[in-house]
Design a protein that fits this description.
The structure is a homodimer. Chain A is built from 10 helices and 13 strands. Chain A is α/β, with parallel strands linked by helices.
Chain lengths: 302, 302
């Protein structure tokens, strides 16, 4: 301890989400040595005050060398737009830099999670990797030479590659985006259709017992229990996921592909059918760091 | 002159093609100060002997600091496979390095052309750009921080992104590849179908007069002459080209998109309908260096 601070230099990683804000103190081995979660307040000013306040508080206890933040939304020219957080072309990192009194770096939350997986998770051995996050939509991050690639600021929007010309309309204004076919939302859509069409299946029974609602766990559990309908659903889904992965392999020839997001917890039940449709000798792994990826990645922004 | 050599340091750029091999002497301002074209001989040994011989000859007249070569085919782990040139996982640059006695760098020919456009052509002002070559297939190159991105070696295969899940089968083994819909070959396919279906159109008359064959020039000439059928064909084609470009913008958020290949000579007749379908404020330009792009780009490999 020196003046009440620990001697070791650490970094702060902030993972800003719609529900809560996660703060982590990350040491030089990329271990999270301290962690806090606070509810995300309403409004842009309250968000910045909350983040700045917590960072200043942390800096009273730790010798902090840098602060990085992962944010939802689109970043262009260092301004973030995330309507659900009341951020409209808002210079979040500049405002925080001024409030905290130390330089704050910012990137997209999916990019930060990808950087975390690249630095300390599934892709630790890969210099170039593509991390694809299967969630409500499809996000992800492009890691080149162990750094986030974001182009002019909003690169890495991996869910908006078109895989079906004139396909399903997407909120981005385009049609046929990857995320309309390969998100966890899409998996649940395929499963619901098949459960309704096959009312005697194990999948349909879980669907009915749960008030006509399915989640990812139920689909993979059904397959584990031998349900051929669930197997078919996962196969249809894997085909769409693999379609995008194969495109990303042609584009990037990466060292590795990492799948993250809640359904990546299904492990090889999800990954094996995807692997079966990838004709390349490139490893496909599930993310390892789960919720910590964003904090570790944000702390590594520079 | 010093010992018979010019004093200024120059680089050799070699553009290896199926028909001929182009050699250029490139100065520090990226001007091609000397140039030779020789027919491509048959067989791997003859190709390497021809390239090495010409480079050694050039090095007797010029103070050469580096040699770079652009080759067709797929490069992985510094070995090139281009069946039409009898190259099968062949360590072309290593063999040339030994034969010439100076380090030879190698990349894909489309990558070299992209690097040339980035260094001295349409994308000179852009650090990050995507060059899309519309030819028999669709090729291209990814330029990040003014350098070629090629991942483990074969990145930048921009024509094999899937834009139509389960679409037209491609020679790569996948279905629905961008190049099946956005190559010059595809444009001529759309035009041929429309000419046959509209025998009174200006386009159909050119088609018939040319022995039931169309080329890109005839299609754009027809539009210039007011042919609504040609206009519709170009619009259909532009929609597919833009579909891929929009995906690449979401993925890379580049500073610029450059279109190269023979049909880019149509200029705004081709580019304007594409631009109309791109909802982003990112410049779309035609390539400027034409056949010299590959030589200049190869000379810049490092």
């Amino acid at each position: 301890m020196l003046n009440g601070k620990t001697l070791n230099k650490v970094r702060i990683g902030v993972d800003l989400g719609g529900t809560d804000i996660k703060f982590g103190v990350v040491d030089s081995d990329n271990n999270i040595v301290d962690k806090w979660i606070v509810p995300t307040p309403k409004g842009c000013d309250n968000i910045t005050d909350t983040i700045a306040g917590k960072c200043r508080e942390i800096m009273q206890s730790y010798d902090v060398t840098s602060v990085g933040i992962g944010t939802p939304g689109l970043i262009r020219h260092n301004r973030v737009t995330a309507f659900n957080l009341d951020l409209n072309a808002f210079p979040l990192s500049d405002v925080l830099t001024e409030k905290i009194g130390t330089p704050v770096k910012m990137s997209n939350d999916a990019n930060c999670a990808a950087l975390g997986e690249s630095a300390e998770g599934a892709a630790k051995e890969a210099s170039n990797c593509i991390v694809i996050t299967l969630g409500t939509g499809v996000g992800g991050g492009i890691i080149i030479d162990n750094r986030i690639y974001e182009g002019a600021g909003s690169g890495g929007e991996l869910g908006h590659m078109c895989i079906q010309h004139n396909g399903i309309p997407c909120s981005c204004g385009q049609k046929g985006c990857y995320e309309k076919y390969a998100s966890a939302t899409a998996l649940i859509r395929y499963a619901t259709e098949h459960a309704q069409a096959n009312p005697d299946s194990i999948l349909a029974k879980k669907y009915t017992a749960n008030g006509s609602k399915l989640n990812g766990l139920m689909i993979f559990d059904s397959e584990r229990e031998g349900c051929p309908v669930a197997k078919k659903v996962i196969d249809i889904y894997a085909d769409y996921v693999a379609c995008g992965i194969n495109s990303y392999i042609f584009i990037f020839d990466p060292d590795m592909i990492v799948i993250s997001g809640g359904i990546s917890n299904a492990g090889d039940l999800l990954l094996d059918p995807i692997r079966a449709k990838i004709p390349f000798d490139i490893p496909l792994k599930a993310a390892q760091l789960k919720n910590d990826a964003g904090i570790i990645g944000a702390s590594l922004l520079n």
